[in-house]
């Protein structure tokens, strides 16, 4: 059993953040909220998504698992107005999700979860450095780097967080000291990441006040922020690229 | 003789509503206003368009008929500002239409009406059910249906008007009771229509308060609304599709 | 030595006005400001660009010449907010330009000026007629003409400035009398210009109050207006087309 109502824009934002990683997901439904763990097809990025029951206007659920095509949901939500309420109810047998948006009733066929890649194991990483910054700053640096290169170097050196991209001839660098950051835990950290992935991942951070980045030396980065006014959270784990000289 | 002045946006809206059916039209000019009847090239949709002299700031006309390429007019009006006045005057011999928009004078060559498909005969239909609803509601249902299917079923059942689209796996349905409608004349009605045509036809209804739909059982639908603040009217007649099972 | 700071939008507008003529330019840097003279690859249009030191918030420079790819600069400035300050500094040896926008540091490799077409000689022309008009009026006439033709005839006849385009069947004409113009110096003038070029050239005039046009009979046109609130100026010289009958 699953029956819930939620603000349309909030749901849109949450699903958009997840959709940058995969198209088809297994959603775990529990009495305390819904969650997803998914890996992108190339095994480079992982998304860990949690939306607690408090994000919903109404929420009641038993434990179950459903398979969903995120593009279909995004498409349907495209018709909703910002302040519409989206009502969802799982049909007996978990084969169909009934969605009501402003009087329009959708009957969405669900995917068999067993046909979707299983939940990945989240690796335990010891990431020595941690930086908390404004999401818009992060997004702007990534956009600037994209103009110049395919890769972005991110690191912490003493009390400074830096992002740097090098093109064939040009270079862009952003440095943020402790004063310009919301928080900084210094530690040895310097890793290179694919801008293809980063650009997608930071898209939803544009309206996020605090994004936390955990970094190591040639290690994956953990990008982590709250969604739904604190009622949910999304974390991305992105594998590093090895610099070819 | 034809000489008229009209608000640019009002003219744009009126022509846009007509242009969803055909590109080239015969416009009938009379002392009391202008009118067009046209059928789309595939004979599926008919548009019946009337714009009375009261829609114009200035209007004086003898009876005549001109042939016009609607795309050209739309293109020229694209340059007009919302509140510009468009002045039109037919040249002696009805070969050219002089159009003035904010000091810019266009000389538009007209088409020989005899080269354009003749006015169709409007069939007399006995459509038992009639629904009056807000244009934005209609447009939203059609947009939602398009995400899922190529066809939309529209009907009246007891005191409820419904629109329903079925895709391979998913389904969308809008039901509106007597309370949610502006008016309802109940009657046996249930017909299937091509969303290709419907999507075009309902585009101009987005800012229309009252759209009236007349329906029958596997019969054409008559979609009808006022334009130009009541000084004009456009009706579309759309042939039904037969459901292939 | 060159070190300067300037408002991001002002710089964007100035470079956009220049970029309609060429992609790669030699910029002459002098203590009193920067300047560019460039001809388009087909030798049809010339741009003469000057931006005085007063356009900058900070400015200090020795004489030098640098080669720049305008598209790269436009691309980077795309990330700047309207009110950001852009700081630029030339590296020792004039090989790289350091650009800082809101904490993001770009290192832009410059082009060897000797690989860029040399500054053209600006011809001395005796253009008898001169018209000063609002930039938005000019832009609107050019946009209207583009709908109909590839060429625009511009001329002065008695006390009237006119622009006229003829298509295969249609025609558009704008006439402006002395009263509708900011200034008019009457003189024999009537020349035909390519709308391909004109459309690009008048794009930046949309927010310009006074654009001056100097014209002759089958002669180039000089289009001239202030940029950066009067601290700079751009002039375009566009060669006439010969009307093929």
UniProtKB/TrEMBL annotation, chains A, B, C:
Keyword set includes Coiled coil: no
Per its UniProt record, what InterPro entries does this chain match?
DNA_clamp_sf (IPR046938), Pr_cel_nuc_antig (IPR000730), Pr_cel_nuc_antig_C (IPR022649), Pr_cel_nuc_antig_CS (IPR022659), Pr_cel_nuc_antig_N (IPR022648)
Q: Which GO terms describe its biological process?
A: leading strand elongation; regulation of DNA replication
- Care to name a GO molecular-function term for this sequence? DNA polymerase processivity factor activity
> Proliferating cell nuclear antigen PCNA C-terminal domain: from which residue to which, for each copy?
122-240
What keyword terms does UniProt attach to this protein?
A: DNA replication, DNA-binding
Its transmembrane ranges are none
Q: Superkingdom, according to UniProt? A: Archaea
Q: Which residues form the Proliferating cell nuclear antigen PCNA N-terminal domain?
A: 2-97
> What HAMAP family does this protein map onto?
DNApol_clamp_arch (MF_00317)
Q: How does it assemble?
A: Homotrimer. The subunits circularize to form a toroid; DNA passes through its center. Replication factor C (RFC) is required to load the toroid on the DNA.
Say which family it is in: Belongs to the PCNA family.
Q: What role does this protein play?
A: Sliding clamp subunit that acts as a moving platform for DNA processing. Responsible for tethering the catalytic subunit of DNA polymerase and other proteins to DNA during high-speed replication. Sliding clamp subunit. Responsible for tethering the catalytic subunit of DNA polymerase to DNA during high-speed replication.
Q: What is this protein called?
A: DNA polymerase sliding clamp
Species name for this entry?
Methanosarcina thermophila
- Top-level taxonomy: Archaea, Methanobacteriati, Methanobacteriota, Stenosarchaea group, Methanomicrobia
């Amino acid at each position: 059993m699953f029956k819930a109502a939620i603000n349309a824009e909030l749901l849109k934002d949450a699903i958009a953040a997840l959709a940058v990683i995969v198209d088809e997901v297994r959603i775990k439904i529990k009495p305390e909220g819904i969650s997803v763990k998914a890996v992108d097809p190339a095994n480079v990025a992982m998304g860990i998504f949690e939306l607690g029951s408090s994000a919903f206007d109404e929420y009641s659920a038993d434990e179950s698992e459903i398979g969903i095509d995120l593009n279909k949901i995004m498409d349907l939500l495209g018709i909703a107005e910002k302040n519409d309420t989206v009502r969802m109810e799982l049909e007996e047998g978990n084969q169909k999700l009934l969605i009501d948006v402003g009087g329009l009733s959708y009957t969405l066929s669900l995917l068999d979860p067993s046909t979707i890649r299983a939940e990945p194991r989240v690796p335990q990483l010891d990431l020595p450095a941690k930086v908390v910054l404004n999401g818009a700053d992060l997004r702007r640096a990534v956009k600037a780097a994209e103009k110049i290169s395919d890769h972005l170097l991110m690191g912490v050196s003493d009390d400074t967080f830096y992002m740097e991209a090098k093109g064939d001839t040009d270079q862009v660098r952003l440095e943020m000291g402790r004063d310009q950051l919301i928080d900084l835990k210094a530690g040895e950290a310097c890793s290179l990441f694919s801008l293809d992935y980063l650009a997608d991942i930071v898209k939803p951070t544009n309206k996020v006040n605090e994004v936390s980045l955990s970094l190591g030396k040639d290690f994956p980065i953990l990008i982590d922020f709250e969604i739904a006014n604190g009622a949910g959270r999304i974390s991305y784990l992105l594998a590093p690229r090895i610099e070819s000289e």
